[in-house]
Amino acid sequence: MAKEFVKVVLKSGKDQSLLRFHPWVFSGAIKKMYGTPAEGDLVKVYSNKDQFLGIGHYQVGSIAIRIVSFEEIEPDYDFWKSKIESAWNLRKMTGFDNNPETNVFRLIHAEGDGMPGLIVDFYNGTAVMQMHSIGMYLIREELVKALQEVMGDKLKAIYNKSEKTLPFKADVKSEDGYLFGSESETEVKEYGLRFKVDWEKGQKTGFFVDQRENRKLVQDYSKGRDVLNMFCYTGGFSFYAMQGDAKSVHSVDASAKAIDLTDENVELNFPGDKRHKSTVIDGFEYLKEIQDKYDLIILDPPAFAKHRKTLPQALKGYKRINTRAFEQIRKGGILFTFSCSQVVSKEKFREAVFSAAAIAGRNVRILHQMSQPVDHPVNIYHPESEYLKGLVLYVE
Asked: For 114, phi and psi rounded to 5 degrees?
């Protein structure tokens, strides 16, 4: 017997984004619901003219429905398994299935892989799952089974890290922990460099997988330079700078735990190397008094804006911190500057950085415009999945 789904009807004109395959339905677009769905339930979405538009997970909040299929089907185990297979096939095609030099990558990138609300990062045998929707959390056992089937012997453990990412309004209590396997190898390789990853207590899933190619680019510009890695977290950019034969590398973060992990990782890759120094201090404070000390600065702050209402304040933050970097960096210096805020567009970020350059009165040229790597694919119908943006700037 076919399952009954709550029918959701949109207001006139609010169907256009779904007809263009954008996977979000905002609460303000809903005209009527024929029934009362629980959070995480699958619901069917129709236009005001009764045209089927898609099926997705319902959730209380601004984004009320995340579409998982634009076809009128009932997503079952085989449906989810095929989604995971598709994601894994893309990673295999791009060289992540058997690379001895890089065994950490993003396996599932939410909307980018047609699975809104689900992030899975792969760490040398362990898949760390982070669920941002109740719908994905409720089918976690199916997802675990499908991951095991698709990945086979390559997968040694699956860790759930959704305790802090599930919507706070939801009446669901998720505890972080292993859903398959147990504590496994925490050392990973990226382009041959070694990293200790703490997915149990670290930020995000434990490591910023999305900066891999941008870290490699830092290596190309580091030779003979004095490098500052602001908001260093576990020190990724610092090791690449050292690998690129930097003269000195200073890692700065407000978190003592992050600095401890940075120091441990430096010792793993460059034991006893005196070029590296780490400091626990607020980033804005540190940038006050570094006049002419560095000729390569990396600004990779945490997301200043997680919601649209905080966007104006976030843009002020990006302008402020980039102004300080422009004022302090040596002539002929290189600035790597990033935003990982989804609600900050490339255009708005660039405006903030350009304003900062103008305030500092420096002549600045763009050398590179950066985004996320191939294992973080962007859904062409969902531009919001391109959240990481960066600029490499030459400062005269």
From this structure: 70, 25
